[in-house]
Request: fold
Amino acid sequence: MSLAQRIYPHLPVAGQNLALAAFGLRYRRQRLGPGFDQYVAAFRERDRWSEEMMRSHTVQRLRELLLWSFQTVPYYTVRWQEAGIEEGDLAKMDVEDLAGLPITPKEDVRRDPTALVSTTLPRRPRLQRHLTSGSTGTPTTIYFTPQNVRQAMAVREARSFGWAGVSVRMPRSTIGARLVAPQTDSNGPVYRYNPIEHQLYLSAHHISRENLPSYVEGFNRYRPQVLTGFAYSHYLLARLMLAEGVRLQYQPQAAVLGSDKITPPMKATIAEAFGARAFEEYGAVENCVLATECTEGSLHVSPDFGILEILDADGAPAAPGQPGRLICTGLLNRAQPLIRYAIGDLGAWSKRHCSCGRDGLPVLESIVGRDTDVVVMRDGRRLNTAVALIFTGARGVAEGQVVQDGYEDFTIRVVPTTEFGVEQEEKLKIALRKRIGDVRIRVQTVEELEKTTSGKSRLVISRLRDNNDHNG
Ligand SMILES: [Zn+2]
Reply:
């Protein structure tokens, strides 16, 4: 934790706003500084490339990255040599050949992040460090060059913000877990404002009926045009607004939301309450993958930012529609390359072709959860059978969660819409039995689902696992 981060919680609100302004100046220089506009223009141009053009661009970048990593990153030098890989192999690799390289587990990066840092770069303090929170609560350090930080912002500006018709330079709001109102018992405002960035920060921890007026006040006071941050928090806030009959006094232009799985009913709720369309964005602090929703509603991956593979249980490429582990190769970070990085999420390629014309950017069907979404078998095995997939396309389900109460006892929790009924209940049970066998299942409709301590949604909860596993 930096000195600033340690001091921040103890400052009064005015001091916190001032501190945010200081962070804001640095942030602006880091992310929107030299090269930014050119990067944005290049990503925009590649939007319209054919599959073939994108492929040859991506392969070229990949080969450069692989050689760089083999020559200058100790972790890859050692592991690839052990696997019998030579420079000549790397120089002619295609995207499909990536499968011949070993997977980089998250634990390896967590254990020794500097082993993955290139030895030829300027001294490490000049690199930027970011921490991932990680599902186990153990943070991982990720290093970037200043250039890479700007590229990562540029791809979001061109695609995530650009496709939604907005820009990072517009006044915006962020609901997240960081820096806002650190004391959870604080009665102070649930938001802080950074005047340099015109950015309103709102806490994901304080969303409740009692605090709703403070949130709404924050929006109305600073009028952010672009809403960003946790999807689930926006949905919770939207539900409260609808329940209380509260609306904003202005209309934001768009919401670009990530960090949680977001269902069509959740998007509809957000759009109704905030008066702005909600676009989904799938990304990672590691800057090795980005998927962005287009106006047609498809989630397009950006291979010119990071190559995505989806692997089935046997490690082979998963067929479209079949869920598998996401393996990411970030093409742009030369400070700490992540090659075949197991990011810990599950997803599936789409079977459909998107009509928006972005043929070089393949379409994800959905993100269907995390590696840690496991159920525990009687013999002790922990299986990830992507049970959350039962909610994909399920009618009448605003939110769903699968809870394992015992080896053969499961509860499907549903926050229902008006379409939900006995027929939908039966369909969910059949879908779940298909994935985990003949178990007892009850369906429970609830107003709200259990969340993580950081305010994110949880798709799968296993009481058996939680009882034996303190790591989460
Ligand atoms: Zn599209």
The two ends are 22 Å apart (CA to CA). The chain has 13 helices and 20 strands.
